[in-house]
Structures are given as structure tokens and as C-alpha cells.
């Protein structure tokens, strides 16, 4: 797995990492401390050992107007691990995800991520003037064959809508098209920012199942930002709670899969996490 080192693009750092996705947004020099072993960041040949981390973040700080939203944050994600990220609104979850995606490099600190990464946001962000299959291939290098898109659309149960215009898709279908667009990148790291937030309850359950299946089939690391504690416990190997600019709490979820929300241990973990988030559980409120 090739790994990218993200740090600010600066005149004093000519070797600053390039990224496969999007604009950097960083055009000014920022002081940066890069302490990580560079061996881990170099391109891996087929024979090279798999890196120990899909994501490695150290001393990450991101400020807006002088106010640090992310403040000396540390985070590791193992290859193939499913991590869910919770935290109150405005605590910096999307900011962290954008940095990992390479969409924001106005940072201090060290960010190591795989070269192959993909991101899906709450809004599917499909181009209305391109048919679904063309949207799926959008931004891929070279001239990928339509079959590549069709295969990914099949994988998310949307093969029959390949030729459709985005405006004719339902919300759940559009979200699945967005997932297909992420999958064609064959990511080692899949970044999901509240991808089910706008879906109705039933569609949401189906989409959660789909993501769980895709993750198990593909074996990529996933970082899922969500507000839904139940969704986090249902899907993740590990749940993180972000607060005050850092990962303030983390919890391994050692429940067997598929998980059952009726399992008393499920309820116990959910309760603990809700408490961490400052939400009283029903038992406490009574
Ligand atoms: N481009 C920007 N310029 C100024 N402030 C920003 C910018 N982007 C984010 N912020 C601020 O940083 C903070 C964190 O925002 P972020 O979008 O990361 O929160 P979040 O945890 O994803 O919240 P939510 O759960 O509501 O999506 C917020 O106070 C937000 O206003
Ligand atoms: Mg957000």
C-alpha cells in the first residue's frame, strides 16, 4: 500500500506530498513538524510488507481564524479496520475527514494516508449533466471503460440505473451511486462523512448493511463520521469520540458480527458512548 504524507505546501517543503484528490487549499507556508519515519511513507512494491497503519496522524492542528478546531490530535487506523467517529456538531469531524482526504492541507503536524483513498459525503454530489455511470467514473485517471462503472454499480445494487440521469434517482439510489464512485477508486481507505444522514430510516438500515458488506468484501480501512451512536456500534471495530480538538475517548467494539441491537451488550456499549457524548440514557433520565 503506497502511503501519502500530507503537510502544507510550502516553499520550504518542496517535497510536500501530492494527493490524488481535489485542491489543496494551502498556499502559504506553515510551520510543520514531521517526525514520522519516512520509510513508512515510501511507495510499497508488491513485495514490500503491508504498513502497520492505514492512517497515522500525529500532532495535527488545524485552526480557523486563529482558533484551533483540531488541536494536537493523534489518530491511528489499522489497515482494514472500520472506525466510526462521533462528536458534537462543530467539534471538527468533517475538518479531520477533509484533511485525511487531502482536501485541506493548511495544517500543522503529520498525516499519513494511503495513496488510494476515496471519500463520500452526506450529499451525493452527482453532476446532473452526466449520466450515473459517467458520474461514477468522474475524476478517474485515464479513460476507464464503462464496464468499470457498471461493475461498481452492480456491487451497490444499482446496475439497472447506470444509464439514468442523477435527478431521476431516489435519495438512497443517489447515495449508492456516490458509494460506487468511491469504490471504483479501489480505496485502501474509505472516508465517509455522514453518508446516511439524509436517508429515511428504512433506506438507512439498508445502506448501513451495504456499507458493512462492502467493507468486509473489499477489506479497506473505513473512517465513518456519524451522529448515530447505534450506527457506530453496529458497524465499527472501534468507535472514537472527538472533543476539544482531539480524540477524547475510544472504545473497541468486540461484539460478533452481524450485530444485534437487541443484545444487552450492544445496549451497554451504546449507553456508555451516549454518556461520553453527554447524552443521558433513558435509565438515568428516569
Ligand atoms: N472553512 C472554514 N472556515 C472557518 N471555519 C470553519 C471552516 N470549516 C469549518 N470551520 C469551523 O470549524 C468547526 C468544525 O467544523 P466541522 O465542519 O469540522 O464540524 P463537524 O464536527 O463536522 O460538525 P457537524 O457534526 O455539524 O457536521 C466549526 O466551528 C466550523 O464553523
Ligand atoms: Mg460535519
TrEMBL record:
Single GO term (MF): ATP hydrolysis activity
Keyword Nucleus annotated: no
Superkingdom as given in the UniProt entry: Bacteria
Entry keyword annotation includes Transcription: no
SUPFAM superfamilies found in the cross-reference section: P-loop containing nucleoside triphosphate hydrolases
Keyword field: ATP-binding, Cell membrane, Membrane, Nucleotide-binding, Translocase, Transport
PROSITE patterns: ABC_TRANSPORTER_1, ABC_TRANSPORTER_2
Residue span(s) of domain ABC transporter: 55-269
InterPro entries on file: AAA+_ATPase, ABC_transporter-like_ATP-bd, ABC_transporter-like_CS, ABC_transporter_ATP-bind, P-loop_NTPase
Pfam families per record: ABC_tran
Region (Disordered): 1-31
Protein name per its UniProtKB record: ABC transporter domain-containing protein
